[in-house]
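Progress narrative, work stream C.
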Amino acid sequence: MTQSTPAGTPDQEGRALTGAAPLAWAARMRSAGLRVTKQRLAVLDALQEYPHATADTVLEHVRQSLPGITVQSIYTVLHSLTGAGLLRQLDLANSPARYETRVADNHHHAVCTKCGRIEDVACAVGHAPCLHPSETHGMTILIADVVYQGLCADCASAQPAQPASSGTLEVPTMPREARQG
């Protein structure tokens, strides 16, 4: 991850890193104080194509263009891009960390508890952080992470009718490898 490849120039395999997306990411990296590298561009490309991806999904996609990239390199890039504010890390229950490039707003997420599908949900009401806690305990609240859990339309239509509830709420757990929405 030490070699820098400016957008618009060929990488080691001779492919040109051109187009609006790499140029926009390159500018954002530079303004965040990061060097533009083909590894960082490849990770950002993977997350543009697969929002809410795990590190393993990112690795699988990046290896298509950079076959020699290591797992450690992926984690290093994810960490540096997250630290620079170019990525957001999602820590959802019963799921490995996930990453997304949508960082300019304080949106929330809806997660299907059956198949693991994840969808972005616009901020509910008001300005960031969208929710105002009744007690801050002296903290300055910057972000409110809300995760709506339920069944996506596909899973709900495939589920048989449920008998009358006994009054207890059963919350299913999300599959380990969740589907990307």
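Work stream C, second folded protein:
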Amino acid sequence: MKPHSLSARRIGLLMFSLCAFGLMTSASMPADSKFAVEPVVEKKLKELPPGPLFWRLENFPTLAQAQSAAGPTSLAAEVAGKVWLFTLGPKDGSTPGGTKVVEIGPLPPISASEYLLRVNRAGGAPGAKSAIHTHPGPEAFYVLAGKLGQRTPHGVTYAEAGTTMTGHGANTPMEVFSAGTTDLDELAIFVVDANQPFSSPASLD
């Protein structure tokens, strides 16, 4: 019985040591650097306004007011504790009752039989990055917090909190990542071909 109890004790000590080591290593390792994407709002259109197009971002006191003021190319949503109206249209436009935050554009041109307007909220811890992908239309960004990076065949570009970035044309391979020292929180705003997959895997050399 004595050898058996000694063996059991050794096994118990070994398991305790392994558990303690696991707790120590998990505590010292960085959090999972996942790039999270959350759809916010979207709509489909048959036609776009003529001429060069810009995304206009405005804040409203309430979501009901933003929805009431929304035009055919507008999306209203509450994000990050604020009410937003995202409107696709010509430069220097305005919406009664709204406070303009920024305009993003001009956007690369797009032509389709039907369009999808969409706003996503995305981001992650420093170093988090998306899979390499494409969209069937241009993407624009507004950075709420942190620093945004985007890698494409055209190079790498960055945008700080409170600034914007205009993406490239349809089907451009891209990787989006959190480039700063604090968590990235950004709005990704799209006008794409509604009859194609919203996102497709791609590669970057």
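The radius of gyration is 23 Å. No further action is required on this item.
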